[in-house]
Automatic annotation (TrEMBL):
Annotated source species: Esox lucius (Northern pike)
GO cellular component terms given for this protein: endoplasmic reticulum membrane
Residues covered by the FAM69 N-terminal domain: 52-210
Protein name in UniProt: FAM69 N-terminal domain-containing protein
UniProt KW Membrane keyword: yes
Family (UniProt): Belongs to the DIPK family.
Entry's transmembrane regions: 61-80
Gene: DIPK1B
Pfam families listed in its UniProt record: PIP49_C (PF12260), PIP49_N (PF14875)
Length: 461
């Protein structure tokens, strides 16, 4: 009846649809012109030439649709699986608040987290199941909340099992420990971690002040247990040691071994992060091009770079010794809304003293056996089959490798050649003690000066 010159195949489906179009429900009457348009779209979408190939086209389209459904289902499954494995903030909240209510731990954030509920966990940002990271709000202020779970699901996974395993974190100091003994504990621990430094006594005093939550001039057993557990976390120790530094996120509070920091507006140098399960499917060239397209304007990237170079200066021969970047990844370097560099993740930063202790006397066959973290690598003395204690690549060289892609893209033409030359010199820096002092500082200052001269007296300075 409404063929309009179309092929008559599929008559049963058409008859049913025509019945709907010609005899609509009482509540809706479709105009004749609209019925004709719908009929043409549904039944005559292809030209006569294409209609002769319709069966083959149907198969191709069907395969493409099913392939799309399979890929989308796989992505959704992987997203759910990774979320359920990595995001266990509810476990952190349960364990911490249980310990707080039992008087085992204390902290400046405990009341807000467990009683007032003014400190809330929101979006999961974890990349490891043993280190929970969440964005959150504390009295309407954006914050980042971090909490450790020491392989707690390797047991039976029951709540009481989680509590038992977390209890071992808070076993020191023991009841009866005097204040002088606690100070000595702190001093010995900091000396073994940071090395013999003249300012360790000042750092001990800073830790004691931080532990005294109620500001009564005393440190309770719960306060001491909490701050001792936190000092075992490398990032927390660095935040305390570098708290006055501009490019370190501010520590806002803690409860047991959970701690709260200021939120960095952008937690990575690049805005597009490809999930690990999709990296094999997305070409590296494509993700790199997209990140370059999404990156801030070059003068803003130069400002972020200057801040990153200043951080390298801050951790090189600071008041509490030298610190090395053992995973110079773009995911660990962030920046705020003013494009000031902020280190979003300090877990991969380690003291030179701790790395030397790790390497000293370590047996090896190749240089790869002498690696602390991801890329703090020393050489292997193959005659005695032991690691040397000097890391080969210094912080500045690692940062310059990172900056080659980040900074050269979109650089002003009159600056590019000089910038490329300085970055090339920087990348080849050695970590040997004979080169570290003068050469390291000279290269760093030259690079900072070049960038600063370019953006000074502009809106980006």
């Amino acid at each position: 009846m409404l063929s309009h010159g179309c092929d008559s195949t599929g008559i049963r489906f058409r008859d049913l649809l025509q019945a709907v179009l010609v005899f609509p429900t009482e509540s809706f009457v479709m105009p004749r012109g609209l019925r004709r348009l719908v009929h043409l779209v549904l039944f005559c979408p292809l030209s006569k030439g294409l209609q002769s190939r319709l069966p083959a086209l149907k198969v191709k389209y069907l395969l493409l649709v099913w392939l799309g459904i399979l890929v989308a289902s796989w992505v959704l499954y992987m997203q759910y699986a990774s979320y359920s494995e990595l995001c266990r903030g509810h476990v952190c909240h349960m364990v911490i608040c249980d310990h707080y209510r039992r008087g085992i731990i204390s902290g400046s954030s405990c009341k807000a987290l467990c009683e007032e509920r003014s400190l809330t966990l929101q979006r999961c940002m974890s990349t490891s199941s043993t280190h929970q990271v969440y964005s959150g709000l504390w009295k309407e202020r954006p914050v980042v909340i971090k909490c450790g779970l020491e392989e707690s699901l390797k047991g039976d996974g029951a709540p009481d099992s989680l509590l038992r395993q977390e209890m071992t974190l808070f076993d020191k100091p023991t009841r009866g420990t005097s204040m002088d003994e606690f100070r000595e504990m702190l001093h010995s621990f900091l000396k073994s971690t940071l090395g013999e430094q003249p300012s360790l006594t000042t750092l001990v005093g800073r830790v004691i002040t931080l532990a005294d939550v109620n500001k009564d001039g005393k440190v309770s057993l719960a306060e001491a247990k909490s701050v001792w557990a936190l000092l075992q976390i490398n990032e927390f120790l660095l935040m305390v040691a570098l708290q006055e530094k501009e490019h370190t996120p501010k520590l806002l509070g803690f409860c047991g071994d959970l701690y709260v920091t200021e939120r960095v507006g952008h937690s990575s140098l690049y805005r597009l992060e490809i999930p690990s399960y999709l990296q094999a499917l997305v070409p590296e060239a494509l993700s790199s091009s997209l990140n370059q397209w999404l990156a801030p304007a070059w003068p803003r990237r130069a400002r972020i770079t200057i801040g990153l170079l200043e951080f390298v200066e801050e951790v090189f021969h600071g008041a509490y010794g030298s610190f090395l970047l053992c995973d110079a990844s773009s995911r660990h370097v962030g920046y705020n809304v003013k494009y000031d560099c902020k280190m979003a993740d300090l877990r991969s930063v380690a003291s030179e003293a701790a790395i030397r202790t790790f390497l000293r006397g370590r047996r090896c066959e190749t240089n790869a056996d002498c690696t602390f973290g991801r890329d703090c690598t020393a050489t292997c003395d193959r005659l005695v089959k032991q690691c040397n204690t000097e890391v080969v690549q210094p912080n500045l060289a690692k940062v310059c490798v990172l900056l080659q892609d980040y900074l050269l893209f979109g650089a002003p033409p009159d600056l590019r050649a000089d910038l490329e030359k300085q970055l090339r010199t920087c990348v080849t820096l050695s970590g040997l003690a004979s080169q570290m002092e003068v050469h390291h500082s000279l290269v760093l200052n030259n690079l900072k000066t070049l960038l600063w001269k370019t953006i000074s007296n502009t809106q980006y300075s």
